[in-house]
Write a structure and sequence with these properties.
Order of helices and strands: HHHHHHHHHH
Distance between the termini: 52 Å
Helix content: over 70%
Strand content: under 5%
Shape: globular
Number of helices: 10
Largest sheet: none
């Protein structure tokens, strides 16, 4: 069992390194991929959904994905794609972070924040999940991880994430489209 955890963790680290190297050292290829994908809109939709779904394992906020996709995808489909990715990603973090022992990373790196969230979450589950996931300055992956370790009811957790992230993503996407429209983009 331990060797499976080590393998999964190793694969996850390799995936992060490969994606990071590809992004930082081969930016022209990333641009070419998006240029091709924007001409094939369904391919771009799939790419955004997959990236959004895997985002939780990279600890990268959904905001970056929104900013990246905003010029290429209309607001309504982008909202649904991002929200679908956020829900898959949140559920993945909820179930798998404890399994992969990522909790030790969060426990050490964000010790005070994690403890405060644990205390609040154990008393006020749904409101804390909603407001935490709605706050742009708080990493939503932490509340997903803590909800999973405290075994918050998964339906309550998903409802809270849907409401909180739904509001935040709507502001980012529809507000971002309005700003881009004001600049003629």
């Amino acid at each position: 069992m331990k060797s499976n955890k080590k393998r999964i963790f190793f694969i996850w680290i390799v995936f992060l390194i490969v994606c990071g190297a590809f992004f930082f050292f081969n930016r022209d290829s990333v641009g070419a991929i998006f240029a091709f994908a924007s001409s094939q809109i369904w391919l771009l939709y799939i790419l955004i959904f997959v990236a959004g779904s895997l985002r939780g394992f990279t600890l990268i906020p959904a905001t970056y994905l929104i900013v990246l996709a905003l010029p290429f995808i209309p607001a309504v489909p982008l909202y649904f794609l991002i929200m679908a990715g956020v829900m898959v990603s949140s559920l993945s973090v909820y179930y798998f972070f404890d399994y992969l022992k990522i909790d030790e990373l969060f426990g050490n790196k964000h010790k005070a924040l994690v403890q405060k969230a644990r205390n609040l979450l154990s008393t006020y589950e749904l409101p804390v999940i909603i407001f935490w996931s709605m706050a742009p300055f708080l990493p939503s992956d932490i509340i997903c991880y803590i909800s999973g370790t405290l075994r918050v009811n998964v339906y309550k957790f998903m409802l809270g994430m849907f409401i909180g992230e739904g509001v935040l993503c709507a502001v980012y996407i529809f507000g971002g489209k309005a700003v881009l429209g004001a600049f003629g983009v």
